[in-house]
């Protein structure tokens, strides 16, 4: 089970992104590649490519990151269309790309986009609530400027702990 979180500013620029996997319910022998089984990139063994911490085994780290960014940012239009028709902050299953499902949480003008390959609506909703709270605390810091990327390692650690708890 793989997840990709992108926090997007009102100007549609990325403020924070994280890619993580969940150990909940995943069999030990399951493939950790986030590419579909028919993809030529799945389970590719390129020994010359160094492994990046947190990146799924058997994948090209830079390529996968760019693919996830593209899917998340391409879904922004769908997120905005769905958000106009509802007063809810949490938007589940807004868009779909291959095996990835896009869920969103919109607080003010900031969009929290989560790509996931499993259905866990309650856990994702709780995760978004906690990440939103962490974002508000980080943005209130005097060391953080509005609409600039969040590079606080404590924020990253807390987001990953929340992901481990809820996803």
TrEMBL record:
CC per GO annotation: cytoplasm
Gene Ontology biological-process annotations: endoplasmic reticulum to Golgi vesicle-mediated transport
Region (Disordered) location: 41-60
InterPro entries: Longin-like_dom_sf, Sedlin
Gene3D superfamilies: 3.30.450.70
Pfam families noted in UniProt: Sedlin_N (PF04628)
CDD domains: TRAPPC2_sedlin
UniProt name for this protein: Trafficking protein particle complex subunit
């Amino acid at each position: 089970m793989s997840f990709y979180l992108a926090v997007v500013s009102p100007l549609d620029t990325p403020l924070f992104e994280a890619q993580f996997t969940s150990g909940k319910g995943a069999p030990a022998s399951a493939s950790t590649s986030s590419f579909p089984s028919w993809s030529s990139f799945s389970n590719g063994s390129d020994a010359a490519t160094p492994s990046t911490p947190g990146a799924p085994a058997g994948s090209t780290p830079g390529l996968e990151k760019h693919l996830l960014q593209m899917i998340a940012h391409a879904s922004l239009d769908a997120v905005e269309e769905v958000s106009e028709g509802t007063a809810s902050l949490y938007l589940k299953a807004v868009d779909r790309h291959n095996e990835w499902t896009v869920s969103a949480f919109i607080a003010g003008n900031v969009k929290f986009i989560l790509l996931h390959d499993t259905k866990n609506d309650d856990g994702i909703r709780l995760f978004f609530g906690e990440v939103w709270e962490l974002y508000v605390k980080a943005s209130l810091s005097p060391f953080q400027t509005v609409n600039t990327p969040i590079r606080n390692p404590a924020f990253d650690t807390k987001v990953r702990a929340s992901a481990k708890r809820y996803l």
